[in-house]
Amino acid sequence: MIENKKFQSTYNFAFLDERTKREIRRKILKAIALPGYQVPYSSPEMPIARGWGTGGLHVSLAIIGRKDVFKVIDQGSDASVNACSLRQFIERMTGCRTTVDTAEATLIQTRHRIPEEILTAQQILVFQVPQPEILRGVERLETRTRAMHAEADYSKLWVSLYEAYVRYGSLMRGAGYPVRVNGRYMMSPSPIPRWDVPNLSDARCLYLFGAGREKRIYAIPPHTVVEPLEFEDVRFRVEDWGATACAYSNARDAFLDEIYEDDSSRKFVVNDSNFLDKLRTGPRPPQRLFRNPQ
Amino acid sequence: MGYVAVKGGQEAIANAAELVEYYRLRAATPPIEIEQIRTQMRLLVDKIMGEGSLYAPDHAALALKQNEGDVFEAAFTMRAYRATLKREFYSEVLITRDMLIRRRISAAFRDIPGGQILGPTRDYTHRLFQPELTMESVSSIEEFLQRIDAHIDPAKLTAIPKFGKVIDVLRAEGLLLERAEGDRRVVDVTREAIKFPAPRSASLQMMARAETGGLMCLGYSTMRGFAAGGHGTVGELRVGDVAVQVKDPRGRVRYLGRITVTECEMVNSSKGSGKKGSLPLLSVGYGLCFGQNETKAICMGMLDNSLREPNEANPANSQEFTLYHTEGVESYGFTNHLKLPHYVTFQSGLDNLREAMQRTLASYAGLTVESPAK
Description:
Chain A is of the alpha/beta class. Chain A has helices at 18-33, 54-63, 81-94, 142-150, 155-168, 273-281; strands at 39-40, 69-74, 97-98, 107-111, 124-128, 179-181, 185-187, 206-211, 216-220, 226-228, 256-260, 266-270.
């Protein structure tokens, strides 16, 4: 017969054991020392499935302390089911305080968005990354992409951008726009929309990226130059909603979600849920905005 | 914040968990006991232990029970638990030559030293339904067990023999290709990310943890012309128990217990060294996995062979393709992440598409078209 106590061991603070945390922290330090370079790490299995934020969780759990206040967003929202699930897990495993207020959080884990509100030097933003290799679209083999990064050979990536331009009249890169970090490594910013890409450069906060399934960590330290790829005559552009304003706050200059009602009519709503709350209660939080070139 | 249908949050998660539990129990049938799953679903438990990378039959049975028999979920639950366990020791090398053999066959020779032992297998059972099992009872089970016991004559029991390996015969004759392994490091892919080209130890470890169906897909592809080498031969397939030992801090080797494993040596013809006049010697591919999972051990043996002849044109000759894509817990997780909302990324792509449509239409007709988004 099975002994019940067999299934009742307890977990360490922040779930990971201390040896694993130490290993991940070392890899994070290496990533910060080499901005944009993908550092392989152990990436142990988590109780959350691969592709659902395990890399972000590894980074968050390795660096979280008892005094941290954390926030989890998924596609800009604190309330989407996966954000709730991850927040609940971190809360259970650390007992740390959680918040939805972007300004109050010391540690924010995100999937596919950077909050609209400017992040400060006291904050760390942890990205969940599904596919860390920006070159994967042009080269399927890991052995070759690592060599291409080592030799700073990014010609295939440039050619793919040029080909998109020739075919469709624009660079046709949606989310996950390729960027060059610190003038050296090409990097996938995780699939954040182009709207968020300019905020990667010269930021006050630390950006950490965790790709669990692919077992890679990378980083953008504060005040690092991050440039989206563009040509002299074909410039990087963010998403453009024209004169459309948010149906709830009447605000412009924020990433908008396109929502269809039961009668198939359409409206646009500010995507960042906490930012929307603050717009409605006022005052409007500080933002860094990028203007498309004319 | 409740303005998008997909945002149900905390309450929805709790309700969904309760609802799926209701689906498990709503027929109000008697509960399946862990011990019943462990013993009567033996082969499934073996598979879960292998893919879950944790030799713990009770835990595997519990994982199956709580996941309503979903094999991927059960293996995932095992892995997630395994990752929290401290790594105090690495075991000494398992000596499969000392295996307590239950089953042992070779397809390469009619008779082998020690003899062929068919053992417990359904290989030669006709796949016909057994309706009597719908009426199985405790007394019918007891009757069966008594009948088996009656066959055994205690006077005829002998000491457990050990058997030599079939490949020893081939090796003694000089027929085996003795490969100079380039990279003999023993790495642990659960402690450091795999890098390519991976040493053979990493490759074998990945395959021992891989999903059986994924391995079979690629193993099968090698026999259908999608890899060099073709149709291998089972040199030897063994199922049985081996001792696990560790070295304690004072350097003494300690016996921990026994585990059941399946071991396979697949024999393939090789291309030789490629030099003129070199012999097409036989190469041996190795497979080993937890429990009795012969399909997995055989496919692992085939792929161990094919992976040592790199050729990116064939999935089964490419380490990256084979090892990344047969990793069940990772491919299962990532496939299912497609159910997560992707509206931000989708919006970003839609913006490009709408602009491109506008440009194209305008260029054809000399018209300006109002973008629907504006």
